[in-house]
Amino acid sequence: MRVVNHVGIAVHDLExxxxxxxxxxxxEVQIEHFHAAGEWFDTLTANSGAVIDGTNLGDxxxxxxxxxxxAGGEPEAMTGHNRVGNLHISINVPxxxxxxxxxxxxxxxxxxxxxxxxxxxxxxVLDPDGxxxxxxxxxxxx
Length: 142
Prior knowledge:
By secondary structure, the protein is an alpha/beta fold.
């Protein structure tokens, strides 16, 4: 049986991203801080001299790993729906309109309007590094 262990995102500012994914998205901190560096990490990532700090957040059955490169990372994020290989994260919520109101109240800039999708409602925001985050209400889940 295959089970996804985690989804990882390299971020520019770990603390800022933790605040977004904890306070806006609603994930809980699972591992507050970890550090990775050394020969094993160089070999694993094919990135000699890489050093990261990270945090794991999640909820039931989902873990999001945020990592900030202290050495060996690229400074520019190339995010967006139209870029091959880029991701977006979709979070189920019981009420897309209420969640959008929360997001606006939290000061997150430029959330899209809530739109009707097959079987529910959805809207997007961007995380602090421009990764699209979708909040989705699917009628059959609630």
